[in-house]
Amino acid sequence: MFLLKKWLGSLLLPLPLLLTLSLIGVIFIMLRRHRRGLVLLLFALLSLTLLSTRPVANALLHPLESRYPPYRAPVDREPPDDIIVLGAAVAADPALPLVSQLSQAGLARIAEGVRLAHLYPRARLILTGYSGGEAMTSAELYGEVAQVLGIAPERLLRLPEPKDTAEEARLVRPLIAGRRAILVTSASHMPRSMALFEAEGVYPVAAPTGHLAKETQAGLPLYSYLPQARYLWRSEQAWHEYLGRAWLRLRDAF
User: Do 133 and 169 sit in the same domain of this protein?
Assistant: First the structure.
């Protein structure tokens, strides 16, 4: 079931989906259904172009990333017992530095987790995430990075089994039940993560990180609005989250 979800999710991302539509358009043209084929080709090309621009990518990400504000240490609240850092993709190559083996999302997540661990020296650091076919799991790499950055090993609890956020929420739930916890994950991923944890009956405080929809106060040159691969990647991150939320609604409906 997990592999099926991953496969379908990958097919429904903008680039493979729109390339598939383009191919279907070409086939229609070859079959002399020119109008239908041209419509598909133009739609796919225009969509791909728009998704590769900064305004569209940021417009897709902003509703997700602005749902929860950045974490600020409250002066009127008891310190947390646990800090949970959700897993992200890894490339466990021992020839690389530790931080280079983490994805951009993973690096942002563990950096925020370590920051909070230093802020709350009595809190336990719960690290999650499986290997995805790599030699080390996300949880194990997180633990190595955390220790290098000054976190004592006895404060670390690694959970290398969960393959997705739903499994992470299920496995973490009994560990934080009745305890104060902070949840660290990417800002765009936070709404879906909080929904899954709350569905398990636990209510951690959100600490989003790794924001992508960044705007500058200074004016941007016109060329920054041209289509670029990095903006398409940002659109894909948002698209992935919207697909995930749609899957949750569909699952809950049945």
Answer: yes
- Is 219 a domain residue? no
Choose between 5 and 47: higher pLDDT: 47
pLDDT reported for residue 219: 66
Residues 239 and 190 in one domain: no
122 and 33 fall within a common domain = no
3-state secondary structure the chain: CHHHHHHHHHHCCHHHHHHHHHHHHHHHHHCCCHHHHHHHHHHHHHHHHHHCCHHHHHHHHHHHHCCCCCCCCCCCCCCCCEEEECCCCECCCCCCCHHHHECHHHHHHHHHHHHHHHHCCCCEEEEECCCCCCCCCHHHHHHHHHHHCCCCHHHEEEECCCCCHHHHHHHHHHHHCCCCEEEEEECCCHHHHHHHHHHCCCCCEEEEECCCCCCCCCCCCHHHHCCCHHHHHHHHHHHHHHHHHHHHHHHHHC
Same domain, 59 and 79: no
pLDDT at 217: 60
Domain that holds residue 27: 2-64+227-253
7: left (phi over 0), alpha (psi -120 to 50) or beta: alpha
Write down the pTM of the prediction: 0.90
Domain presence at residue 220? no
pLDDT digit string, tens, across residues 157-203: 999 999 999 999 999 999 999 999 999 999 999 999 999 999 999 99
